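INTERNAL AUDIT FORM
Audit reference: QA-55
Scope: verify that the stored structure record matches its stored sequence.
Auditor: D.O.
Record contents follow.
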Amino acid sequence: NFEDENHFLFFVTKNGIVKRTSISLYQNIRTNGIIALNLKENDELITVKSTDGNKDIILGASNGKAIRFAETDAREIGRTATGVRGMDLGENNVIVGVAVVSDENEEILVITENGYGKRTNVGEYRQQNRGGKGVKTLNVTEKNGQLATLRVVSDQEDLIVASDKGITIRLAISQIAHTKRATQGVRIISL
């Protein structure tokens, strides 16, 4: 419903910029499109999530850190604005995953570039102010590699993992180890 005052689009870029905009600003899209977000040089849009204004956002970075903050920390801004810093990434790191959470019992799944992964309760991630460096969500080592993705999942779902060599596996989320935040994870797929 494009007229709903309590419905927002939450934008996240690879350089950690976030933006929250009312969905009503997107109800009259022309055939050639409209500007939804101004991007800085060398930045790109990772994802856009639909929210109701009362959720928490978790951003996951390639360096194995994640930050959790209330979506209201990113004030509502106009359609063509650039946005604000969601996470301080430091050198050579990018955002690789975004989760919108509303319940402490939800789980976060992280997977690394070398095929390791784990599930962690959302409650392990303390809420912080937007723009911080975050907390360790995964112990990044040479063996498991950098963080490749972060998602919110449930036990009733399945996961399909595909490698860049074309190997694909499917497994139940419930089969993935459930561990604390600062661990390495277990092998999900052999690469």
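Auditor finding: record pair retrieved intact. The radius of gyration is 17 Å.
Action required: none
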